[in-house]
What we know:
Layout: H1 23-36, H2 41-62, H3 68-85, E1 89-95, E2 98-109, E3 113-122, E4 129-136, H4 138-148, H5 157-177, E5 181-186, E6 189-195, E7 201-207, H6 219-225, H7 237-252, H8 257-260, H9 274-300
Parallel strand pairs: 4-7
Antiparallel strand pairs: 1-2, 2-3, 3-4, 5-6, 6-7
Amino acid sequence: MSNRSETYGAGSPDIAPGEYVDPRVAEGSARRALEYDFMRPATAQSLERRAQADMLPTLLRMGNGLSAREFRRFVEQKALPRMARHGMHARVISDGGILQVRLLSVLGDPVEGIRVSEMIAASSIPVPQSLTVAVIRPHALARCMQRSGEQDHRNVKGELLGAAVLASFLAPVAAREQWQQVALPAGRGVFVGRVDDAGLFTLATFIRPGQNGRATRWDAFLHAIGPVPDPSKTTSRKQMDNWCEALVARLSAAGPISVRFPVLRQPYMPRRDALDERWAARERTARTERDGELVTSAFSE
């Protein structure tokens, strides 16, 4: 498929008022949000240390005499709400018949961006493991706000959390199948970026595919995923987890996901951004008009 059909941005030559935010405004808002409004890494590390020393070992020890179903119910009813109050999305999964407790935290850093980290504890793991499953770069957050027409990052938090939770479910599959790129639908658009050998998603930008009326290489994959629920609007986080589990099972039912969607095994290649070009053209036009007004003013004095 040609680069032309993969151009990012709107289809019309003009920027619709109210539909897109000035990129300078979006970038400034993204920097402030990452600096002040997300959990800081130091806070997350403190919570993880507390979980490692207290909560998770206690839960796993108490679950020794319970059946898998009883232990899952115990954790979901007693422990997960407590962890959620500390800003950590916790869930229970079964991996090879062994129950695991996973803590997901969404961290903010003005340089790195949004880091989605997960800590895993199980009776088979002597020391809980902590890993990063996704990074949403500052540029991607700014693009999400810009292309969603939002100047306040709080209005796209549902999209961000949905992408974070979905990434935590897809990252193990990506590592196993050696994906090289990924697209995560999120509200009014899609986060796209590269995947490394360990399954880490580095989401570089946010696009709204298909606005120019042309097909894109992601259409089949995104259609198979369908709309992602907004975790902030579901009645419980468990609903989001259940949806993600069902999605992975559905996509994997006929074999490796990357066989069905070969685009996932292709290297990530950033594309030309038509919206950037239009904003630059608008700025050049405004600058020319300002310069013309200054010249006219100088000669009239």
